[in-house]
Each structure stands twice: as structure tokens, then as C-alpha cells.
Design a protein that fits this description.
It contains 13 helices and 26 strands. The protein is α/β, with parallel strands linked by helices and 511 residues long. The chain is globular, with a radius of gyration of 23 Å. The two termini are 34 Å apart. Bound molecules: alpha-L-arabinofuranose (AHR). Residues 29, 72-74, 174-175, 216, 294, 352-353 line the site of alpha-L-arabinofuranose (AHR).
Length: 511
């Protein structure tokens, strides 16, 4: 049988940049069952003394998550953080307008930050620039990071936490370009507010890094213009601009869905270009990097009725609990490889979200927690991608898709750790046939030790742990290195199954 052939060339001297561990971030929003019956469920058989589910925390660590964004998302734009601190008995429930859900305020800033600290996740906090502003944002930074002797830091201490949390990463609001956002603003209104809030926050703690809101997606009418306007107000102040993108298979167009990584790639290039245009106008030597703090597969258009159509609910309702297929997992693997290929520009990213809400981890209240198919490529990439992202050159046949035009059938990313020699290679075959790839590594002795792959099937994703187990049994497996990989002095040849994502790992040393 003749296979489609493709070629990849790599060498540790040709690098994109270091792989920042914050690239493997995720997101916990007060939305649906992400918090209540997700990370937190007092009374659950695995709950710790603080009411947090041990099984979920263990899975989050197995996932390789390094950083968690909190408390939203759309939720943050109408959240009063003060209502979520202090004695729990005194806290009042409030009606969250973003998701039309009664928020009981049982978990707030202290509970989340202490849980993240105990479990070893770096927090990334967002402030409300929808219904609130400069004062509440600066007060929250002081509450989290301030030393004793001022009002909000002393409140934290009175609430039982003496040491500052030292939260480094702060989002200046969330998706403020979106008309659905509570307190939505135009780019000038938001740019001015973000600049003033960010200025005050940095006066409280100059060591923090700030993320200014970019567009909610590349499809927004204001895309490009928005980035340039908000950065005109905030360029010298902020460190990162945010990007959000969700992908889904629409109208049965599998080829376009499989090419989501190319759409993400172009989106990153365009945001970087917009930011650089502002920098160039200012003759600035500073580079604004990207915080891709919401990305995933989400059946947003095809399965979600829209926030305004949600009834008012309480007690952790099931909202956007997408179930994923092996095909979705292949796309997630390819999206992560795309992020690695932009490691120089995208040091921070968050898979949205962590648990129950468009998430790699699912739970049943009072029951088990399990891994969705998308869990596996994420966990494997987080574990294997170490050191430097390499500037791999790919020579692949292309296909023409309805949504994204011409796209390569094969994509590749690679990392190499100069300290240990560890090499990892991530390959996605988007075509409906097998692809044989020659990975050229001239001047390098490569030894592969392990490989993993997810092969898409045509089964519909169905709810529950049984489906997730079926996908693992049928679609997720160790690569048979003896049968599917041939390593020579100059190249390694790999046969990739149709519509599959593959990770290979071992060592690469100069010959
Ligand atoms: O992740 C779900 C939602 O998607 C977030 O709340 C919002 O920021 C985005 O639109």
C-alpha cells in the first residue's frame, strides 16, 4: 500500500523558545459544576478536611496542569469578591447574571487560593472590570498580596491567612469586547479602565504581571481594531494580551475541524502582528506576549443554547458539560502542538476548563471522577514537552478545507531539553489515510523510548465514564515502536494512522 509521505526536519540548534510551564494551565470558573461538585464537594467520600475532592485534585495533577485561572470567565464581570471572603455562615448567595445561577459563595478567594497552593497549582486571578473598577481591583490585589498593616491585607489576616498569597498573574477583566459580557465596553472605554485599574494594581504590588483582554475570538467584528486600541492605552503597563478560541465540528465538516490548529496558528500570528504594530508606532523595544487563557473544543454553536436562554438555576446546575470523542482529542492534541510552536510568543495558556464544564475531567456528585478522551493528549504533552520548543520544518501535502482554505495534512511540534537530552515529538495526521513521515535529525543520535497515540473514530461521544473508557480501549494506545517506527542515523520514519495524534519521546544527542 502506498502512503502519503511527509517530511519533518529538526535540530536542537533551531529553537522557537523555552517551554514555559504555564503553557499547561487550565481554568476553574464559578460556572455549572466546575466548583461545586467539581473541585469542591464536602461530604464526598474523597473530600479532604476543607471539602475539596481528592479524586479531582489527583486527576488534575495527573493531567499535568500547572496553573489555574479563577474565578471567571464571564462570571467575574459581575462578581463581588468581598462577598466570597470571611466566615462562610455570614456570606450571602448572589444571582450570577453571566450564567443565571445562584452562587452560594461557599468557595471564594481564600478557599480557592489555599486549595491551589496545597495542590501545587499557580493561581491566575481575574478582576471584575464589568460591573466594578479600579478600587475593587486594587483592593483584591491588596487582599491577596499585601503585608499586614493595611485594610484589605488585614482583612485577609483576620480571615485566617497571615501570609500573602503572592499571586503573580492577573487578568484585567474577561472578554470585555463581547456584548454578552456583563458591563461590556467598547475598546476605548475598556482600554482606559484597564490602564487605570492596572496602574492601581501595580501600585499595590509592582511585582504582578497583567493580562489585558484581547478579542473573545477571531470572528469578533472588532477583532484587530480592539487589540490595537486597548494596547494603545495599556502597552507600557501590561505584559500579555489574552486570546480565547473554541473549536467545534460544524455541519459534519470533519476536515475543517481537524484543521483547527491551523486556525489557531493564524489567529496567534494576527494578534502578535496587531500588538507589534502598536509597539512599532511607539518605537518600543517591549514585546507584548500572549496569554491564550481560554482554548478548547467546545460545541458552542451546535449544542449550547446561549446564556440568555438559561433558566435561573441553583445548586450547581449542569451547564455546558460537553462530552468528547476521540476526534475531539486528536484536535486538542494538535491545538497544544500549535501552542508549542509559538512558545516564544505564548508563555501562558489555559485549557478551558478543568472539570465538568467543557473539561478533561468529569465527576458525578457523590460518585466517581473520570478522564474524558481529551485528557490523554494534554497529560502526555504536559509530561513530555520539556526544555525548548524546536523550530521544526514540515514539508507536507495540503488539503483545501471549507473553513480554513489550504492546510497541511501533517503538523508537527518538538521539544528538546539540552540538560537531559530529552526529545519529544508531536505529530498530527489530519488526513483520512495513513501518512508516512520521515523525521530528519541530521547530526543527532535519536533513541525513542515511548510513544502514544489517539486515533479518531466515527463514534458519537456519549455521556458518562463508560464512553470515556471505551475511547481509551479503542482509540488510545502505546505506539508499537518496533512496528511503526524505524530510527536510522539521519532520520526516523513513522507511520501515522489516519486522523491521529501521536507523541514520541526519547533522547537526542549530538552524534
Ligand atoms: O469558558 C466558558 C466561557 O467562555 C467563559 O466564561 C467566557 O470567558 C467564554 O466566553
Amino acid at each position: 500500500m502506498t502512503h502519503t509521505r511527509a517530511r519533518v526536519a529538526l535540530h536542537p540548534d533551531f529553537r522557537v523558545g523555552p517551554v514555559d510551564r504555564r503553557l499547561f494551565g487550565s481554568f476553574v470558573e464559578h460556572l455549572g459544576r466546575a466548583v461545586y461538585t467539581g473541585i469542591y464537594e464536602p461530604g464526598h467520600t474523597t473530600a479532604d478536611e476543607h471539602g475539596f475532592r481528592r479524586d479531582v485534585a489527583d486527576l488534575a495533577r495527573e493531567l499535568g496542569v500547572t496553573m489555574l485561572r479563577y474565578p471567571g470567565g464571564n462570571f467575574v464581570s459581575n462578581y463581588r469578591w468581598e462577598d466570597g471572603v470571611g466566615p462562610v455562615a455570614d456570606r450571602k448567595p448572589f444571582l450570577d447574571l453571566a450564567w443565571r445561577t445562584v452562587e452560594p459563595n461557599l468557595v471564594g478567594t481564600d478557599e480557592f487560593l489555599q486549595w491551589a497552593e496545597r495542590e501545587g497549582f499557580e493561581p491566575m486571578m481575574a478582576v471584575n472590570l464589568g460591573t466594578r473598577g479600579v478600587e475593587a481591583a486594587a483592593a483584591l490585589v491588596e487582599y491577596c498580596n499585601g503585608e499586614a498593616g493595611t485594610r484589605w491585607a488585614d482583612l485577609r489576616i483576620a480571615n485566617g491567612r497571615a501570609e500573602p498569597y503572592g499571586v503573580r498573574l492577573w487578568c484585567l477583566g474577561n472578554e470585555m469586547d463581547g456584548p454578552w459580557q456583563i458591563g461590556h465596553k467598547d475598546a476605548h472605554e475598556y482600554g482606559r479602565l484597564a490602564a487605570e485599574a492596572g496602574k492601581a494594581m501595580k501600585l499595590v504590588d509592582p511585582s504582578i504581571s497583567l493580562v489585558v483582554c484581547g478579542s473573545s475570538s477571531m470572528q469578533m467584528d472588532t477583532f484587530g481594531e480592539w487589540e490595537q486600541t486597548v494596547l494603545t492605552y495599556t502597552y507600557d503597563l501590561v505584559d500579555h494580551i489574552s486570546m480565547h478560541a473554541y473549536y467545534e465540528e460544524l455541519d459534519g465538516d470533519r476536515a475543517s475541524f481537524l484543521a483547527s490548529g491551523t486556525a489557531m496558528d493564524r489567529f496567534i500570528d494576527r494578534v502578535a502582528a496587531s500588538a507589534d504594530a502598536v509597539g512599532a508606532r511607539r518605537r518600543s523595544d517591549k514585546t507584548i506576549t500572549i496569554s491564550f487563557d481560554e482554548w478548547n473544543v467546545w460545541y458552542l454553536e451546535s449544542r449550547f443554547p446561549g446564556e440568555t436562554n438559561l433558566p435561573v438555576q441553583r445548586d450547581a446546575p449542569r451547564i455546558i458539560e460537553d462530552v468528547y470523542s476521540a476526534l475531539d482529542a486528536v484536535v486538542v492534541g494538535d491545538l497544544l502542538a500549535t501552542l508549542l510552536n509559538h512558545a516564544d510568543r505564548v508563555p501562558v495558556a489555559a485549557l478551558a476548563q478543568l472539570v465538568n464544564v467543557i473539561a478533561p475531567i468529569m465527576t458525578e456528585p457523590g460518585g466517581e471522577a473520570w478522564r474524558q478522551p481529551t485528557f490523554h493528549p494534554f497529560a502526555t504533552t504536559a509530561r513530555l514537552a520539556r526544555g525548548e520548543a524546536l523550530d521544526v520544518r514540515v514539508d507536507s501535502p495540503t488539503t483545501t478545507t471549507t473553513r480554513h482554505g489550504d492546510v497541511p495534512l501533517l503538523t508537527a511540534a518538538a521539544t528538546h531539553d539540552p540538560e537531559t537530552g530529552a526529545l519529544a515529538l508531536f505529530l498530527t495526521n489530519r488526513s483520512a489515510g495513513a501518512v508516512e513521515v520521515d523525521v530528519e535529525h541530521l547530526g543527532l543520535g535519536v533513541e525513542l523510548a515511548e510513544g502514544w497515540r489517539m486515533v479518531a473514530d466515527h463514534e458519537a461521544a456519549v455521556e458518562g465514564p463508560a464512553h470515556a473508557r471505551r475511547v481509551v480501549d479503542a482509540c488510545w494506545s502505546a505506539v508499537d515502536l518496533a512496528a511503526d517506527v524505524a530510527t536510522g542515523a539521519r532520520a526516523t520514519t513513522v507511520t501515522l494512522a489516519p486522523e491521529s495524534w501521536t507523541a514520541l519521546a526519547g533522547t537526542a544527542r549530538r552524534a
